[in-house]
Amino acid sequence: MNYADILKKYDVVIGLEVHCQLATRSKMFSSASASFGNEPNTNIDPACVALPGALPVVNEEAVDLAIRMGLATECHIAPISVFARKNYFYPDLPKGYQLTQFDKPICLDGQIILKSEKTIRIERIHIEEDAGKNVHVGNASLVDYNRSGVALIEIVSHPDISSPEEATEYLKRLHTFAVHLEVSNGDMEKGNFRCDANVSIKLKSEKTLGTRTEIKNINSFKYLEKAITHEVERQYEVIEEGGKITMETRGYDSERNVTYTQRSKEQAHDYRFFPEPDLPPLIVTKERIEKVRKLLPELPEVRAKRFEDIYGLPAYDAGLIVSNKYAASYFENLVKALVGKVEPKACSNYFMSDVLRSLKIESEKTGLSVDEITEFPVSLSQSVELLSLVSEGIISQRIAKEVFEELIISQKMPREIVKDKGLVQVSDDSEISKVIEKVLNESPAQLADYISGKEKLFSYFVGQAMKATGGKLNPAKLNELLKSAIEVRRK
Amino acid sequence: MAFSSEFARYPQKHSAYELAKSFREKKRSCVTYLEELFSHVESSNSKVNAITSLEKQYAFKKARELDGRDATVDEKLFGVPVVLKENIQKIGFSVSCGSKMLNGYRGQFDATAVARLEKAGAILIGSANMDEFAMGSSNEQSVHGPVLNPHDLTRVSGGSSGGPAVATTLGFAPISLGSDTGGSVRQPAAYCGILGFKPTYGQISRYGLVAYGSSLDQISPFARTAKDLDLFMEIVGYEDKEDATSLQHRYQSKLNEVSLKGLKIGIPRSLVKEGLDKNVRESFHKMEEGLIAAGGKIVDIEIKHLEHTLSVYYLIACAEASSNLSRFDGIRYGYRAAGAKDLGEHYARTRSEGFGEEVKRRIMLGTFALSAGYYNEFYGKAQLIREMMRKEFENKFKEVDFILTPTAPTSAFKLGEKSHDPMQMYLNDIFTIPANLAGICALSVPAPVAKNTLPIGLQFMAPWKKDADLIALCQALEDAQLIQVTEL
Known about the structure:
The structure holds two protein chains of two kinds. Chain A contains 16 helices and 16 strands. By secondary structure, chain A is an alpha+beta fold.
C-alpha cells in the first residue's frame, strides 16, 4: 500500500488550527514582558500568576496585529467581538480559565488561495492568551509562567485541505503573512507558530465526513507533511481492517515518524464558556481598520508585482528578492538611493549576482538559511557607494567586483578601499593614450595581424592594456582611444 | 455600656474630615492619636472580633513620617486611620478573605483604591474580618470566627463586611473599606447603625479587590458622616486603567446642592407591604413622614422584575464566583493539602479542605449554572432579566429622584439564628441586591432609634453615576435629623 493507492479509494480531509504568537512587547492582558528565553518566572506580574484581585487589560497593539492578519487573509473584521472564559484546571493555567474568544471572534470568513488556485476558507481568527509551561524534572513537575498570558491568535481553517502538500503550502502562506506583516516572529522552534491538524478520510462515494483525529503541536513544515501522511496511512489501515477511528488527540513522534494517542476526545471537557465580565466587548471601528490597513507592511506578492511594474524587473528576479523581507527592503532602498544614477535593472543585476552570493556565503558560515538572514554582509550604504562609484566613472565594473569581495569581509567603505588600493579608474585621455602607445609598440606582430583583418585581436590589446595598469583603465575610453590609435597606425 | 471610649461615642469629633483638618493644622500628632487609638482597639476588639490583623508598625512608621512634615494640598486624608476588609490587596497586610484557603497570605500588591488613599495621606492600620470570600450576610462564615454586633454582642454584625462595619462603628477608623456585591456593606451598616455606601458599578476601581461576582462587586466605604463619604469618593472615585470596567467618569462633590424640598422619592410599595420587622416598618414610615414634612414628595412605584431578584443574583454571582475562585488551587499561594498522590487528588483535597461550606455550595451552584446544556436556561436567562431590571430602574428614575426601601427586613438577628438555612440567609439581601444588578449606587442610612434599641437601616438608591447627588442627599438628611448614627 502506498499513499497514491489510498487516494484511489479515499478522499483525505484536513483542517488546520494555527496558534500564532503575536510579536508584542507585552502580554495580551497584562503589561508583563512577553520576551522569550528568560529565567523562569521573571516575566510575570499579578495577572500572569493569577494573584487574587488581579484584572486583565487588553493590549491594543495585539488587537491591531490580529486585524492585520485578518486583512491579509481577507477576513471580515467584526465591529464587536467578545472575550470569554474557557474554564478548566491545569497547573499551567493559573486562573483556572483561559481568556479567549468563543462565539464572537474578531475575524470571520477569510481565505487563502493556493498556487493551484484552490481556495482554502478560513473560518475564524480569534485572540487568546497562551498558557505557562510545565516542565518535568524527575518526580517533580515545575511550572514556568513566563509564557502565561502571551498574546496569541488562533487561525482556524475549514476542512478544505485535501493533501499533506496543500496543508504545507497553506501553512507556509500563513507563516509568510505572519512574518512579512510583522504580526509574529514566526519562529517555529521557539513555539511562536504552532499547528494542530485535524485529519480524516472517507470513501470517495461517501458524503459524510469520517471521524477525525487531531494531531497536536506540530512545529515544523516538514513534520506537518510527514505527520499527516502517516496519519492517513494509519487511518486507512484501521478502516480497511474493519476497525473504527476514535476521535482523539494524537501527538507526532518525529524520530519514529508515527502518531500516537494523547488523550481521547470523548472525555471532552465542558469548558463552561461565558463572556468575560472583567472586559467590555471589544469594539473595532471602521477608522481603526483603515488605519491598520494603511500601515500594513506590503505583502510579498504585491511587492513582487510592484518591482516588476515599476522597476521593470523580470518576474523571476522579483520573486526571489521578495522572499526575504530584509532583502526586499535592501533592494528597494538601494534603488531609491541611486535614482538618477543607476537603473533599477542594474541594481537588480548587482543584487542577484553579488549580494545574493554574499548571502549564500553568510548562510554557509552561520548555518542559517538564506531567507532567515536579517543582517547583510555588505551593508546598504556600502552597496550604494559602490554602485555610485561605478556610475561616476571612478571605477570600472570589473574593479567594482574586486572591491565587492573586499566589502564582504570588511567594514570599510568602498571609497576608502579604492583609495587604499589605488583602484581609481584611469579616464584621462593622455594617460590612456600613453599606455596604448606602449602596448602597440610592444606588439607589432599582433598589430600587423589585426590590420590585415584579424579583428579578434582587439581584445588582446585591451587585455594587455588592462594588465599593464592592473585593470584600472576606463574601458569605454580605452576602446575609443585604442580604435583611433590603431587607425592612425593603419595609415 | 460596653463601649464607652470617645472614639466610639463621638463620630463627628473623630470624623475623617475633622481629623485630617487637625493633623494638617498640626493641632495634634498622628503618632499620639494612634497610640490612644490602638489602646482603644486592643481593649475593644476582643469583644467583637472585627480586626483580624492590626498593623501597628506600619501605621506608626507612616504617622512618624506625616508628623515630620507638612501636608500637601492633595493630602485630604492626612493622618486619617483607615481599615481594610481583608479581601483588598495591600502589600504586607493580611489578605486572608476570611478563609482557610488564604489564612496567612499577605498582600503582594496595592489595590488602586488603597494606593489612592495612601497618596491622600491616609494611614492604613489593619485588616478586618469578613465572611469567607465575601459570601455571606452575617459574618458567621469566617475562619477567624464571627464578628459580633457592638450594640448587642449576642447578635451578628451583618456581612459579608462585618469586620470593617464594626471597626467604624467603634471608631477604630472613621472610614473603613468593605466590598458590596449584593449588600455586603449596606446591610452590616444597617445592623450597626452607621453609613454604608455602594458606588455606581465601576466608579471605584476593582483592581486589587479579590473577585467574587465580577459584574457586581464594588469596593464600598463605611463612614459616620456624609462629608467623610464625599471626601473618600473624591479621592478614589475616578477611572483606573488597570480596571477595564472602571467608569470614565470622575466623582465630583455636590455637597450642599441637594435639598429635600421638592424631592421626588419613589417607594416600591408592594415590596415593603409585608415581611418587615415591626420596628423596621415603623422607622420606614417615620422616614416617609419626615421627608414629606421637609417638603419632599413620595411617589409609589412598581418595579416588576424585582420578583426575580434572588434567583437572578444567585445565578450570576455564583457563576462568576465559581470561575473566579478556580485560581485557588494550592499551586502558587495559599492552602495546599498534604500527601496528595496525583494532580486530581491535589486539586480535590486542597479545595475541599481549604474552602468552607457556603463557598463550596456557591461554587457548585455556579458551575452548574454555566454547564453545557444549562447555560441558556440559567446564566444566559439571568443576564437577560438583569438587563430588563436595569432598564426598568432607568425608566423609574425618570419619574423620581431617589428610591427608598428598608436596607434589610429586620434588625441584626441572633448568632446562629439563620445559619442553618441558606435560603433564610439569602432573603436578608432582598432589598440590597437590585442595586448591584442594575449597577446603580445605593446608600444605607441609620434611622433615628430610641435608646437601647437595635439599629435600623434604610436604603436610598440613586440613578447611574449620581453618586454625588446621593451623598449630598445624605447630608441633607443629616441636617434635617432624619438620620442619626446609632449611639453605643
